[in-house]
Amino acid sequence: MGYSADRSWSRGSRDAPLFEAFLPLGRSAVVPVEHVDAATGQPCAADRALRLLVVGRDWVGAMRCAEEALEDEACRSREVCVARALSTLIYGGELVTADAHSLLNADRPEVSGVVALLQARIARLFGDVDRAHALLGPLMSAGTPLETRLVAAGWAVELLAECGDVTAARALAREHRLDEALDAGVACRPVLLAARGAMAMADGRPGFAVAQYLGCGRELMARGVANPAVTPWRSEAALAAFSAGRDELAVALARQEYEAAVLWGESRTVGRALCALAVVDADGQEVERLSEAGQLLELAQAWPELARAQYELGIRLAARGDVVAARQRLHCSHALARQTGNPRRVQLAERALAAVAAPPRRPALTRQQARIAELVVAGYSNKEIATKLFLALRTVEFHLSNTYEKLGVTGRDELRAALEHDA
């Protein structure tokens, strides 16, 4: 399904809300404040939430304003205010709260369109690919306002590309004429540029991907959007630049993203930026950075991003020779990739696991050998063990000698280390 030949691309068309006012994509100087508080004459809570979000320096204030807006009946009746408040919660990492509010507002005709769009974003961030596609599908139909349709198509293309389905991503982009929309200067250009960047990366064209992500960043910065939670364009551009062999650019972008993410302070945003920095900046801190990124992403329940971080950590642990830890991380990445419906990352994890051979299994100890070994580790002498187990001293020594041989150790300290490693 494409657009009819006579359908014109128009910036800020009146069949949809002004998307530069809330996706959030920032605000241009010509976009007026949509709603003021009747009591104070000041911008409403939703408008204040968006302003705090795009600047990206006051997470607490942004979340407070967003929740205030969704409790205010006047804000809740306006699509632009609901979108601003929900977007602020979503990009602030408060997905459960945002989802609860979206369900409360889903049946209200005056806001149902944008709520469905943002529910799709919530599903994507939760790692529920099937639900995200199910929500985006109806929003790409002919009866949907143009800007809503373009954003839905852009997000769907990006998701398909991230999951490795480049053919379907290309077909969807052609069907909705996303290149023409970009050339026409539609309001949602940042969304479409990010989608084209993801498609280029999946298609093995990192140089072109860099240009798309940098273009996305220029658009966002021109609209006053400094917060990397909105779109992690620097991180994605850094990874693309690294793949294209432009290491200095990659490191500079990743460091800028991390600094901006720390200012916002939300776990998913910081963890994602730290993961990208670890990948592109080979300064010897990669494993430590990826471990910290994993902790932050797990705290945020950012399962798609955690799958990537665990994969990258597994690769680097394997390079250090820590095969056991590497395989643990790669297995975790594989499980998360399956859970979040990402076949591309499943394949990457499977290939890495195949390349990182499992360490040879130690011969199993007999019950008597295992019991004696446990007592040795607990600090008992051979004589004390013999007394405790009603065995001859020579029998204990015989079993302990066989245990050392099976485990490839030469004394009590090495035995303790070997048993702790296997625990």
TrEMBL record:
<dbReference type="InterPro" id="IPR016032">
    <property type="entry name" value="Sig_transdc_resp-reg_C-effctor"/>
</dbReference>
<dbReference type="GO" id="GO:0003677">
    <property type="term" value="F:DNA binding"/>
</dbReference>
<dbReference type="InterPro" id="IPR000792">
    <property type="entry name" value="Tscrpt_reg_LuxR_C"/>
</dbReference>
<dbReference type="GO" id="GO:0006355">
    <property type="term" value="P:regulation of DNA-templated transcription"/>
</dbReference>
<feature type="domain" description="HTH luxR-type">
    <location>
        <begin position="358"/>
        <end position="423"/>
    </location>
</feature>
<protein>
    <submittedName>
        <fullName>DNA-binding NarL/FixJ family response regulator</fullName>
    </submittedName>
</protein>
<keyword id="KW-0804">Transcription</keyword>
<dbReference type="InterPro" id="IPR036388">
    <property type="entry name" value="WH-like_DNA-bd_sf"/>
</dbReference>
<keyword id="KW-0238">DNA-binding</keyword>
<dbReference type="Pfam" id="PF00196">
    <property type="entry name" value="GerE"/>
</dbReference>
<keyword id="KW-0805">Transcription regulation</keyword>
